[in-house]
Structure formats: C-alpha cells, structure tokens
Write a structure and sequence with these properties.
Layout (H helix, E strand, L loop, with lengths): L5 H39 L12 E3 L6 E5 L1 E3 L2 E8 L5 E5 L6 E3 L14 E5 L8 E13 L2 E11 L6 H5 L5 E3 L1 H6 L1 E5 L4 E5 L1 H12 L5 E4 L1 E3 L2 E9 L5 E8 L7 E3 L14 E8 L2 E9 L2 E4 L2 E4 L2 E5 L1 H4 L10 E3 L1 H4 L2 E6 L4 E6 L14 E4 L8 E6 L4 H5 L6 E5 L2 E2 L5 H8 L6 E8 L2 E8 L12
Length: 455
C-alpha cells in the first residue's frame, strides 16, 4: 500500500491544481486556434466575382467555379443527364450544332410540365422539308450543381431523328447554345467528363492554357448561335480545299461537304452512294469517300471519311455561302476541347484517339434497336451492292450472332464495330428471318481506298 504524508499530499494537490490550470489554458488556446483557422478557411472560400447571377444558367454554389458532369459516349456523341421543370432524369446529346434546346422525343413513361407559347416551323438537314414544333418559354433546367431558368425549349411534334433506336438507348433531345453561351465548356473524351467552367472564374485559367504549348488555340467564327472553324482539306486528287465548317458535336460523322454549294469540292473516284443518317428534316442520302488529310492549326489528320449529302438534303438547312459543310464528332473526339464562345475560340489538344483509323459502314447494314435498353438488333436498311446485299441479308432480319458469338453481349455501338471492321476479310452473321435461322458470309473490302499514284 502506498503511504502519503501531509507534505506529499500538499505537493500532490499543488501539482494537480497546476495541471488543471495548464489544461484550461490549453483548451482555451485550442478553441482560439480552431476559431481562427475556421475564419481563415471561410475567408479563403470567397464568393466568386462576375455576373453569374445575371446568367440564365449558372453554377448553384457561389464558391465553385467549375462543375464536372460525367457522360456516356455513344456513336461518338456526348450524352448527359438533366431534368426539365418537374421531369425525372432525361438524356440529351451535347450539340454545338444546335442553336436552341430541342426535345426530340419522350419515352412512354416520361412526362413533365411545360407551358405552350406557340408553334414554329423548323428546317434542318434531310429531304422531307420543314417540320412543325411547339415552342415553350420560362422553363427550368437542372444538372447536378447547375440550374437554369427562363429557358426556351422547342418540342418536336414528330420524331424525325429517331435517335433512340439508332443510339440503342432512350435519347430525349439536344442541348446546345444555351450551355455554351453561359459556360466555358471543356470536353474530355478520355475521362468521359465535361467540365462547365464559370466564364469569369475561368478566364485567367483559359489564358494560361492558351499560352501553354500543350494546347492549340483555334479562332472560331460565330453566326446564328453556332460556331465555325477554318481548315484545309487535301482531297483525293491531291488538290487543297480551304473550308469553313460548322463545329457539330451532335453529329456522329467525320466531315460533311456540300459539293453543290462549295466551289472546288472533288468527290473521290472511289466512293459509295449511301444513307448518311437522319437530320431535323428527315433522312439524308449522298456519297462517302476519303480525303488524303485534314489540317487544323498544325494538326494533320490522315484519311478522314468525307460525306457529300445530296442537294435536297441541305438546301433548306443552310445559307448559301455561309459554310462549306460541318465537322462532326468522329473528328472532334480525337481531341480534348475547351469551347469558349465568349472569346469566339476553342483550345484543342490531341488525345489517345487521335491516330485511330476512321471507320465507315463497310458492311452495308443499318441496324436499330426497336426495343430500347435490350440487346435486340434488327436490320433497318441494306445498302445496294454492299457486302451485306451480296451475301443476301434483308431488311427486318433479326441479328442473332456475329462470328458465332451471341450479340446480346454487345451494345449497339459494339455490334456496329464488329460488323464494320477492317481487321477481317470476312464475317459470319447469323440472323432469324421469320421462323428460320440463316448464316451469311460477308466479304469485307475497303472500297474507299485512295489512289496515291495520282500526283
């Protein structure tokens, strides 16, 4: 047992008292430091300057200058999720070629409140003429961390794009100029993210990147809420064509050129007459071929695919002389891109897709998914005299297997890659036609090969 004397008790009590006082002092000091550090931390989170409150789409958090938004990359196109008014989540294509926000279709289980303001007639690419639509003003748009108000939205009365069945998933519309006028928009195709930068908060950073040798500055020309870039195309016959092209991230093609409108456009001798896709005014047909290269501010892109739509498909959609065509997502996805509409410019930096070989519909099959979100694939078109046509495939054939592998394991994009490959000379496609299962062998050949013997 420990024995404590009176003196030791006195010394013990004194030590306890001193320890207590020291603890109180330490506690007060900690509280003071925490309070100071908290004030310092809050002081560093300054509300960002600028005219954010005057923009109709803005970042909600006043302390944040950038919001990152993940996206799906489907058929070269950026697909993001958002809400309109009281809707559930909708899927939109980020489209630099769209001068306004457009609702193209809603699923059977999708709906939201919208105010009707009037009717409007729209013209776009396609051979069916103008189409009717509803116009609505004063709408709200919501992305994660972003809110918009007083938004004008156009609602198509007929789904001329048929986007969902060609994309393999429900697509509700196009999101264009309204986003690009309110933000500096950075598209990172490798990470599959877009970064929406507050233009005031990011202005200095944009100038830094502009002066950074890893980025290339590209001046743009603005007209009617759209932007255009100048580039040089070395055509199949080795002649050069200076072209002004619409930047069109909402189109999956590489390059569209308008031969009837643009002077000195040469259609390659090796070309295909084919279906090119669907536009606002219906289906688009024309020719495709290859150029030797495209030059954009020091970047040389080898053997891109050029599409030459028929005159009736473009006649109502564009002002004659305003442009030579459009630069699509199959070209744009090969770069990291920062769009700055305020500065009428963009910054580009090549990514790992830069040297990927350009593909086209070598098989001649157009495939859709009539039942969305299910791996059920049906032939919608067969190009005459194509490998698929020569093999005997027909419209409405249901694709079951490719090279003896069940197609249910593939997305629509993956399936199209499988049947339009340059890595094989032939593929075997198993289809169901009515109640019969049939195998077809397709002999694949790149008939768009360039003739470099031409000087």
């Amino acid at each position: 047992m420990l024995k404590i004397s009176a003196i030791s008790k006195y010394l013990f009590r004194r030590q306890v008292r001193q320890n207590f006082l020291n603890s109180i002092a330490l506690f007060i000091a900690v509280i003071f430091l925490v309070g100071c550090s908290s004030k310092l931390f809050q002081g560093n989170r300054e509300i960002l300057e600028g005219d954010r409150e005057n923009r109709d789409i803005r970042i909600v958090d006043p302390y944040k200058g950038t919001i990152s938004v993940p996206f799906e990359l489907i058929n070269n196109l950026i697909v993001i999720s958002l809400r309109i008014n009281d809707s559930e989540e909708l899927k939109f294509i980020l489209d630099t070629g769209a001068g306004r926000t457009i609702i193209t279709e809603l699923g059977s289980d999708q709906s939201f409140r919208i105010s009707y303001q009037g009717d409007v007639e729209l013209n776009g690419l396609g051979n069916s003429g103008s189409i009717s639509a509803l116009i609505s003003r004063g709408n709200e748009i919501f992305l994660d961390g972003i809110e918009g108000e007083n938004q004008t939205i156009v609602v198509l009365l007929e789904d001329t794009f048929n986007l969902s069945h060609f994309m393999g998933t429900q697509i509700n519309g196009l999101l264009g100029y309204d986003i690009f006028k309110n933000f500096i928009v950075e598209a990172d195709y490798e990470r599959k993210k877009i970064y929406l930068h507050d233009p005031d908060a990011f202005e200095e950073k944009y100038l830094e990147r502009k002066n950074n040798e890893s980025w290339t500055y590209v001046p743009l020309h603005s007209q009617d809420n759209k932007v255009y870039a100048d580039l040089t195309i070395t055509q199949s016959n080795n002649t050069k064509l200076d072209a002004r092209l619409l930047i069109d991230s909402g189109a999956s093609h590489t390059i569209f050129l308008y031969p009837e409108i643009s002077k000195n456009v040469v259609i390659p001798s090796n070309h295909i007459e084919t279906y090119l896709g669907s536009g606002l005014s219906g289906e688009i047909y024309g020719k495709i071929g290859k150029a030797r290269k495209v030059e954009l501010k020091g970047f040389e892109v080898k053997e891109p695919i050029l599409a030459f739509p028929d005159l009736e498909a473009v006649d109502l959609a564009i002002d004659r002389g305003s442009r030579n065509g459009s630069l699509g997502a199959d070209f744009l996805k090969r770069f990291d891109i920062i769009y700055n509409y305020r500065d009428e410019s963009m910054l580009i930096r090549r990514n790992r897709r830069f040297r990927e070989k350009f593909k086209y519909n070598i098989s001649g099959l157009e495939i859709i998914t009539p039942v969305l979100e299910l791996p059920f694939y049906v032939v919608s078109k067969v190009r005459p005299d194509s490998p698929a046509d020569k093999a005997g495939l027909q419209k409405d054939d249901i694709i079951i297997k490719v090279d003896y592998k069940n197609v249910y394991q593939y997305s629509l994009s993956e399936l199209l890659d499988k049947i339009n490959t340059f890595d094989k000379k032939n593929i075997i496609i198993n289809v169901k036609r009515k109640s019969t299962f049939i195998n077809f062998k397709l002999e694949l050949e790149d008939i768009l090969k360039l003739d470099y013997s031409v000087p």
